[in-house]
Amino acid sequence: MTTVFLVACSHIAVKSAPAKKETATRSEMALEADKIFWQIFHNGEYEKIPSTLELVKAAYLDNPNDSITSAHVGWLHIWRLAERARSNKVQASITDDLTMARKYFQEAVNMNPSDARFLGFLASLTLAEGNIHKDEKSIREGYYMLLDSIDKWPEFNLFTAGFVMSKQPANCKRVALPSIPALPAAV
After folding, report:
1. Is position 129 within any domain?
2. In terms of residue numbers, what domain contains 84?
3. Is residue 60 a part of any domain in this protein?
4. Is position 62 within any domain?
5. pLDDT 10s digit of each residue in the chain, 187 long?
6. What is the DSSP secondary-structure string of 105-166?
7. 65 and 126 both lie in a single domain
């Protein structure tokens, strides 16, 4: 009987916990981290990702209720993963960047669900992570989340979808996204 009571209490305690809320203002630390983030991104300074991640994650830890800083952490992890061929040696642990990016974009979506960019990246990362782990449930969740993100901002999220879907086999039925006309057969 005590076990049932504790399980019920824990379920109620978790379900009734307040949702994480985004702060109305951004910290000076976050604004400084933004400058560095955009500088290395615009200059293509891939080699500076590790030091910039340290700076942006410190800003996140200073204020974990900032969806933009959370997304910047996610984007740095995606960038390191997407351009992994620039590394001298790509190690299996590069997949950790995918998991971390998904985590930080989940945080950003939780705090700011109206930003369709965040949803598009979360969807792509969920689908990609599902593919890595051969987890059909995550693959489907990511795919349908991706379709939702396309509905919310097609001009941006069709690109996001195209990037992750380009890794799918050519005969994959999931490649046929709405709003994308079928390509003619190669001549």
Report:
1. yes
2. 25-112
3. yes
4. yes
5. 677 666 677 878 888 888 888 998 999 999 999 999 999 999 999 999 999 999 999 999 999 999 999 999 999 999 999 999 888 888 989 999 999 999 999 999 999 999 999 999 999 999 999 989 999 899 889 989 999 999 999 999 998 888 877 776 667 665 555 554 444 444 3
6. HHHHHHH-TT-HHHHHHHHHHHHHHHHHHT-HHHHHHHHHHHHHHHHH-HHHHHHHHHHHHT
7. no
